Amino acid sequence: MQENKIKITNQDRIIRILSKTCQANLQVYLRVQENVGLAVKAKASNIISAKAKSGSKFLTLKLSGISDQGIEYLQGRSFLQAEFVMMATKITFICKLLRLEEGTVLVTFPKSLISIERRKNARFATNEQVSAFINVGKNPAKDLATTPPVFLQYESLKGYMAVADISLGGFCMQTRFPYFYETLKRGNVEDSSSLILPMQPVIPIRYEIRWSKKITEHKNVEQDNLSITSYKFGCEFVQVSEDVLMNLRQFFNRILQSKAI
């Protein structure tokens, strides 16, 4: 499914949109052209009218709540790409950096906006800072060689699988242990599982396994050829409540924020 992009050039409409983002103090991500993979977190603060040397007035946009690391990263930059990410859309525009102050930046007011309608079920990849797990509700025997190792104080974790990516519609989970690949079959509807998200209560879930895949990678380590096998499962949520959807959206925002300084 491709993203639907709309260019907005009407200045009155741009002012209305950015005024609302400032009123809501929405999160904005600032990127530089040389490294679009790294973003600086800021908050939309307010629209300020400024006066040029010629005496003419023009609008500027003030962004606040920037970390010291972010201010240092923006030093010496000329043009920035700003992104406001909402659940249904993403607003982006190019602006010129006018002034850096402690925790704030002043940028030129955009002449146009790009509104991008995001995929209905956009996927978010987890990372080391923001991870998630599925307790698949299985209780493998301790003496099976294909199951995770069990330590007495962590025995309750033996049914956990890491989430690789997740959306409002489902998730992909992965493991290194073949027991789960032998047990969880395509078409199964699992109704005794739970989703574990950081800083949130355990969430009971139902899901259908849509596909499973065995992946073997070969690596050379100190002239030895090693093979590493992992197993992935694509799952679709079944009957997701509004409370669960709200928890997922909060988790997606945490993923986005973890990628910015």
Summarize, please.
By secondary structure, the protein is of the alpha+beta class.
Keywords:
single chain, 261 residues, alpha+beta, 6-stranded antiparallel barrel, 48% strand
Largest sheet: 6 strands, antiparallel, barrel
- Main-sheet strand order equals 2-3-4-7-6-5
**How would you spell out the order of helices and strands?**
EHEEEHEEEEEEEEHEEEH
- C-alpha geometry: elongated
Q: Can you walk through the features of this model?
A:
The protein has 261 residues and is an alpha+beta fold. 16% of the residues lie in helices and 48% in strands. The strands form 2 sheets. Strands 2-3-4-7-6-5 form a 6-stranded antiparallel beta barrel. A hairpin with a 2-residue loop joins strand 2 (27-32) and strand 3. The chain is elongated and about 80 Å long.
Question: What's the topology here?
Answer:
Layout: E1 4-8, H1 11-23, E2 27-32, E3 35-51, E4 57-64, H2 68-74, E5 79-85, E6 89-101, E7 104-108, E8 113-117, E9 124-125, E10 133-135, E11 160-166, E12 170-175, H3 178-183, E13 189-196, E14 203-221, E15 224-237, H4 242-258
Antiparallel strand pairs: 1-8, 2-3, 2-5, 3-4, 4-7, 5-6, 6-7, 6-8, 9-11, 10-11, 10-13, 11-12, 12-15, 13-14, 14-15
